[in-house]
């Protein structure tokens, strides 16, 4: 797992006011739905990850089910 990406996701979520579950319960297998993200929160995270890492996440809708899926999508585009 890419801890840099994970830490950035969690930092963006916290900055956006997302009520995350306890950090010790968050794993790559955690469904994004269990992170208490609404659609606006999710899009904010995606856009901020794109800006932070200088990447574009395209055609991800429906493919990102777990936190690990999102981490892998970002990591895979970082080259």
CATH architectural type: Orthogonal Bundle
Q: What fraction of residues sit in β-strands?
A: under 5%
Q: What about the largest sheet?
A: none
Dominant shape: globular
CATH class: Mainly Alpha
The CATH topology is what?
Answer: Non-ribosomal Peptide Synthetase Peptidyl Carrier Protein, Chain A
What distance separates the N and C termini?
Answer: 15 Å
Number of domains: 1
Rg on CA atoms, Å = 11 Å
H/E element string? HHH
Low-confidence stretches: none
Q: What is the count of DSSP helices, taking H or I runs of 4+ residues?
A: 3
Pairing-aware structural class of the strands and helices?
Answer: mainly alpha
DSSP, total strands? 0
Provide mean pLDDT, rounded: 90
- CATH superfamily, please? ACP-like
Helix content: 40-55%
Question: What's the short version?
Answer:
Helix content is 49%, strand content 0%. It has 79 residues and is an all-alpha fold.
């Amino acid at each position: 797992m890419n801890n840099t990406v994970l830490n950035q996701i969690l930092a963006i979520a916290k900055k956006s006011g997302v009520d995350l579950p306890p950090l010790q319960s968050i794993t790559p297998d955690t469904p994004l739905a269990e992170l208490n993200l609404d659609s606006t929160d999710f899009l904010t995270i995606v856009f901020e990850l794109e800006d932070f890492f200088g990447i574009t996440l395209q055609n991800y809708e429906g493919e990102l089910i777990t936190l690990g899926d999102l981490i892998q999508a970002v990591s895979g585009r970082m080259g």
